[in-house]
Design goal:
Layout (H helix, E strand, L loop, with lengths): L15 E5 L6 E2 L2 E2 L3 H5 L1 H9 L3 E5 L16 H11 L4 E2 L6 H8 L6 E3 L14 H12 L4 E4 L10 H9 L2 E3 L1 H14 L6 E5 L8 H7 L5 E4 L4 H7 L14 H14 L2 E3 L3 E5 L8 E5 L13 E5 L1 H12 L3 E5 L12 H11 L4 E5 L1 H9 L9 E2 L4 H7 L5 H4 L4
This protein binds adenosine-5'-diphosphate and magnesium ion (MG).
């Protein structure tokens, strides 16, 4: 079934339209460090404002524990939206309280209000269906229609994603529609060779992804913190690198399955090892199967893939027709350990076919490293959501929109 899109809601002039955005952006000292998600929400918001709708934006930010916490206020996000839209944007002081009610009631056609962080309310993420439903009913009072455009949360059964969509005429916004279309092209008959590049910090975050992808991919390229659990599974010492010993058995299973299925599993030939976890750490390149041979011995920490691995990975990527990449190859936040991630990003820009980047830190990484989003086939705004889609799972926030 096709996803219901904005036009299915008809003429929205004068209507109150609740838009679930994902304005969960990284902050440092109250400043947004990557506003990609606010920018990604603009097409839908502009389309609604231009039609003369009264727009009520809802979103979460961070993980406040079901109660108001100024540290997680949407104020910086509302301010940035105002700058991007070149419009006055009011932020209500609560989500479904008096302030929200007044702000929504005083909206004129073509105006926009942001309600305070959804997760200041326990009902948003409650495990209890009735509690989520009750919270969604309070949100629903503010709208005549609902537009789901927070792609980063469509894999979650949460009040503002799932129940709210059942209570009002609802449709996917432009961002969600684009994400589903682009990621769908990776899932449904990807042009081969199809390569998935996985990195990031923990293998335990990505176990499901690996097992679901092994039957689908031609090549699986492994980097980031998780590569050390792979090396350990092959029997190599990894000194003080990130290691999840309790996952070694699972990883051994994946290594065997990859071989059985004829999936080319790429691990690095060399790694960059540092004497400590710091931007100015001393570091050197060593073979991946001899990490303890570095001058830091058992203290050494692997923080990036090495130059030989960069070359091999770039070659595997460039010669693929479909590439999905999630997770930085190293600790790119420290420039000395960003080289592997930059090399992979560079290779993705050269793919003759479809290249897709998914994951919050991966998207932040390409921007930090000076790449533009349009150098890639698609840069997803969703981490977990894009992975689950690629794995072929059904996502509740999309099913409820007819998908
Ligand atoms: P994404 O958000 O793109 O899905 P993750 O959240 O899984 O990515 O992982 C991102 C983090 O992984 C980054 O902050 C990066 O510093 C970290 N990382 C990458 N390589 C290593 C490594 N070798 N050791 C420790 N952390 C690493
Ligand atoms: Mg992350």
């Amino acid at each position: 079934m096709p996803l219901r899109t904005l036009d299915s809601l008809g003429d929205l002039a004068g209507k109150r339209v609740i838009v679930r955005c994902d304005l969960n952006m990284p902050l440092s000292d109250g400043e947004i460090t990557d506003d990609g998600r606010a920018r990604a929400s603009l097409p839908t918001l502009r389309a609604l404002l231009d039609q003369g709708a009264k727009v009520v934006v809802i979103s979460h930010l961070g993980r406040p524990k079901g109660e108001p916490n100024p540290e997680f206020s949407l104020a910086p996000a509302a301010e940035r939206l105002g700058q991007l839209l070149e419009k006055d944007v009011v932020l209500a002081a609560d989500t479904v309280g008096e302030s929200a009610r007044e702000a929504v009631a005083s909206l004129e056609d073509g105006e926009l209000v942001v309600l305070e962080n959804l997760r200041f309310n326990p009902g948003e993420t409650s495990k209890d269906d009735a509690e989520r439903r009750a919270f969604a009913e309070r949100l629903a009072q503010f709208g005549d229609a609902f537009v789901s455009d927070g792609f980063g949360v469509v894999h979650r059964k949460q009040a503002s994603v799932y129940e709210l969509a059942q209570l009002l005429p609802s449709a996917a916004g432009a961002l969600v529609a684009t994400e589903v279309e682009k990621l769908g092209r990776v899932v449904d008959n990807p042009e081969q060779p199809f390569t998935v590049v996985l990195g990031g910090s923990k293998v335990s975050d990505k176990l499901g992804v690996i097992s679901n992808l092994l039957p689908r991919v031609d090549r699986l390229v492994v980097g980031g913190g998780m590569l050390f659990t792979f090396l350990a599974a092959q029997g190599h010492a990894v000194a003080s690198s990130l290691l999840e010993s309790e996952q070694i058995e699972a990883v051994r299973g994946y290594l065997a399955e990859a071989e059985e299925r004829g999936v080319e599993l790429l691990l690095p030939a060399d790694v960059v090892v540092a004497d400590r976890f710091a931007a100015d750490a001393a570091h050197e390149v060593v073979p991946a199967d001899a990490i303890e041979s570095s001058s830091f011995g058992a203290e050494g920490i692997g923080l990036d893939i090495g130059p030989e691995a960069e070359r091999a990975y770039a070659e595997a990527i460039r010669t693929s027709r479909t590439v999905f990449w999630n997770g930085p190859m190293g600790v790119f936040e420290f420039p000395a350990f960003a080289s592997g991630t930059a090399a992979i990003a560079q290779a993705l820009t050269a793919v003759d076919g479809l290249s897709v980047v998914g994951g919050g830190d991966s998207a932040a990484a390409i921007r930090t490293l000076g790449f533009a989003d349009d150098e890639f086939g698609h840069v997803s705004t969703g981490g977990g959501a894009s992975l689950e889609l690629i794995e072929g799972k059904r996502l509740p926030g999309l099913e409820v929109l007819g998908w």
